[in-house]
Amino acid sequence: MNQQIVPHYERVKRLIAERVKAGTWGPGDRIASEAELVKALGVSRMTVNRALRELTIEGLLTRVQGVGTFIATAKPQAALFEVRNIAEEIAERGHQHSADVLILAAVAAPAEIAATFAMKPGTKVYHSVLLHRENGLPVQLEDRYVDPRLAKDYLNQDFARQTPYVYLTAIAPISEAEHIIEAVLPAAWERKHLKIDAQEPCLQLTRRTWSGGRPVSHVRLIYPGSRYRLSGRIAPNKS
Fold first, then answer.
1. CA angle 130, 118, 159 (to 5 degrees)
2. Is 3 exposed, middle or buried (0-12, 13-18, 19+ CB in 10 A)?
3. 110 and 126: one domain?
4. Its pTM surpasses 0.90
5. Could you give the 3-state DSSP secondary structure of residue 20?
6. Total structural domains in the chain?
């Protein structure tokens, strides 16, 4: 009776999973590099790469481009139906939030953004891009457009110290929000900042907010699929 041949990449996956189960590698531990695994296991780099990629998709590993591969911890989650401050969400988990301000400028409004703010395309709007980190690990890329008529001092804020959410909700409390969720493959510049490879899918949350019936913000939030999840709970209306 012929035994089924197990592909090399599957054997590598099983070996890594067994080491995690045995406690050799625990949550947050950095595992051996691709080159080290190739040498130790006597398989090709392509084989190791496929095994690591599939284990990342399955949620066992987290890969940070240019840094290494780590055993995944429980995925942090963001509120799906609420509009919350990511810095508070991270602090509630007992972790440290930090943010890099990549862009903060006045730009000509693209057509979609102009439509949101009921203005002509090319009208000046404020644009910010922030990279949010949890304990140093990139977990969210925030690409936001803001109506300057409601947030005149937006460009003067220090968003490395205070998130746009905190500033905007203070001057224009949210009365209404719209969420659109999609699975996407991020652009090259987004992958670079999030430190993920080209095959990693991401969650994209596009959010528009209003204050007193006036549109305030249009933001696109990108979360690496292996590092974050979105969750929400709806209570049925009993009236």
1. 20
2. exposed
3. yes
4. no
5. helix
6. 2
Q: Does the residue 238 lie in any domain?
A: no
Residue range 127-184, pLDDT digits in tens: 999 999 998 889 999 999 999 999 999 999 999 999 999 999 999 999 999 989 898 9
Q: Which residue has the tokens 């460009």?
A: 155
Which tokens hold the place of 173? 């409390």
113 and 146 belong to one structural domain:
yes
Return all residues near 8 (Cβ < 8 A) that are at least 6 apart. Answer: 43, 44, 47
**Which three-class secondary structure state does DSSP give residue 202?**
strand
Span between the terminal Cα atoms of the chain, in Å: 65
The runs of H, that is alpha helices, within 42-181 are 45-57, 86-92, 111-116, 164-171
Tell me which residue range forms the domain holding 21: 8-71
Burial class, 90, CB count within 10 angstroms (exposed 0-12 / middle 13-18 / buried 19+): buried
